[in-house]
Amino acid sequence: MIANELRKDYLLDRWVVIATERKRRPTDFVQRPTGEIRHKDCPFCPGNEHMTPPATLVYLTENGEIIKEKDSNGFRHKNWIVRCIPNLYPAFSPPNKHETFEIKENRHAKAFGYHEVVIESPRHDEHPGKARISQLIHVINAYLDRLKFFEEKPYVKYVSIFRNHKREGGASLSHAHSQIIATPIIPRIIKEELEASRKGWENGQKCVFCKIIEKERNGPRFIWENSEFVAFAPWAGVNPFEFWIFPKRHESSPLEMNKDEIRGFAEALRLCLGSLQSLLNDPPYNFGFHIAPVGDYKFYHWHVEVYPRLAIWAGFEKSTGMYINVIPPEDAAKSLREEMNSKLEK
Amino acid sequence: MIANELRKDYLLDRWVVIATERKRRPTDFVQRPTGEIRHKDCPFCPGNEHMTPPATLVYLTENGEIIKEKDSNGFRHKNWIVRCIPNLYPAFSPPNKHETFEIKENRHAKAFGYHEVVIESPRHDEHPGKARISQLIHVINAYLDRLKFFEEKPYVKYVSIFRNHKREGGASLSHAHSQIIATPIIPRIIKEELEASRKGWENGQKCVFCKIIEKERNGPRFIWENSEFVAFAPWAGVNPFEFWIFPKRHESSPLEMNKDEIRGFAEALRLCLGSLQSLLNDPPYNFGFHIAPVGDYKFYHWHVEVYPRLAIWAGFEKSTGMYINVIPPEDAAKSLREEMNSKLEK
Questions:
Q1: Measured between CB atoms, which of B5, B108, B316 is closest to A7?
Q2: Nearest of A182, A53, A317, A96 to residue B17 by alpha carbon
Q3: Can you give the pTM of this predicted structure?
Q4: pLDDT tens digits for B75-109?
Q5: Chosen from A87, A318, A324 to mutate, greatest number of chain B CBs within 10 A
Q6: Would you say B9 and B236 are in contact if contact means Cβ atoms under 8 Å apart?
Q7: B106/A contact by beta carbon, under 8 A
Q8: How many domains is chain A built from?
Q9: B118 partner at 20 to 30 Å CA-CA among A41, A288, B4, B98?
Q10: Which structural domain range is residue A268 located in?
Q11: What's the CATH number where A125 sits?
């Protein structure tokens, strides 16, 4: 009997069983068509802008130039390219005037912050895996604009940019969108990554993530790279077909990207998410940015983690914080690499 | 605008947003009938014992007494009351002779251990919320027998007993069953609880869990108690309608239960899971035991955590380790308390 392998994350004290015995092939995960219902009156579709709160940011074109505007209470911009709106049911919301953030008895606080939706395209069914690069650049720029805006608020410590794809992925509306949540505390996974990366930095070594990237670029978990970005399946990934996208240059926040990097990042998202989509017939997934919190965290290295939703985390995972992954990351990387190459050859 | 509340767990560095603004009522969560298909050839049903590996433990009755047996390769016991079998696709499996457990470079190891299924009843549809107390006592005793067996192995550090209810809850077969996984490392959530409870104990205070129990028994999150056990909704629960069941006596492991406590625990499971089932029309859920690992952890206080699956953890939760719970634990406790009282009055 060949034992499965237990693996620990690069930085987190998180273990995963890589099931070599119960190993599955990509075909085991190919999605059946779910017949997702297209909402007739989608509040994110052009023409229905009045169904949402006023946009906090819209991108419009004027004489071929992008201009940035926002809606007002009685007015909604039309013909937008990208549109950011407050979430109707915000998990975090800004304080009233003169309220300050305070953690009481180390156990509770008011959930000050922001919760917004980024409508990625006027096209209902646009998927980043198929969108034009120019459109993805607009989406990324909108992320960056809102990120900058939120980070300037005194009660914001961390900004999470994430995407939920499909109903099983937690998306309550099917129109292409991502979300941004600004929180008044540093979330635990980020905090753990910070602690581990600070240690390495202070010991005079180089960034721990830079070392990981260098290693994974040249190994069996490598998926894809261009001049600016690299994608690989993480050593101890907890989801089947999980992959991470890193900027090659050491940057603690996506706000440090230059124009070439923004384009390179758009290309990375398009190719990696597109390969996941075509390999497994449009599976549900989540992605989340990991970025440095507000403050001096130059030792951190921002990146995006993509979590396909092909397994159910149940009693064992939820009660212990250990995971079981039935696709070895090396196999996932190989399948994604091959899918990507077949796309690039077309 | 009333801000939502951020709450930190009793012991873990885990924060949850309790959504008071987006607050929902229990009726929002009542399940629609899903038409779960009953498997014609259920391998866990009586008569199909040959479809599974040989049982590692079966409970039989003989002249009104319980006797314990196990199957052999060519032979399967019939007329069993409870039946424990190896999982066909084990995440953890025992080492070959002379192999010892070793963590290499602090990042990988062989996944030595056990992975078994406890078939809780010959009746396909038996749910602990409706089972006879006597049957639940057999199930608990089977858990304890296997727990004891696993804990004697030199490479076992922790034993996780858990239940996945319904397909959406991660159960691949609908016949009433739970699972037991024995692992060669202490899982991270347990490790964090151990560290926090050890600190309190060593400072000459009493058990931190005993203090939590005392407080919650007398507060707005209390759900139910008998002489031996108490159930409450945890202060910073991350799932809607989450509740925890604790023995009142300080015990680090369920192996310390006396006969009265075993009966009291069976009653707790029946009533609490039964109320969850009737309140929300049989929702999917997971439960997991939290018990002391193998070794000297007398400061730990074992308990069971029940996680109803009524929300999807998506990009935000998965990438940050922060959670959003749209049912305040106080409201969840009130609904469960009322449901339980209406059951007890019948």
A1: B108
A2: A182
A3: 0.94
A4: 999 999 999 999 988 899 999 988 899 999 888 99
A5: A318
A6: yes
A7: yes
A8: 1
A9: B98
A10: 5-345
A11: 3.30.428.10
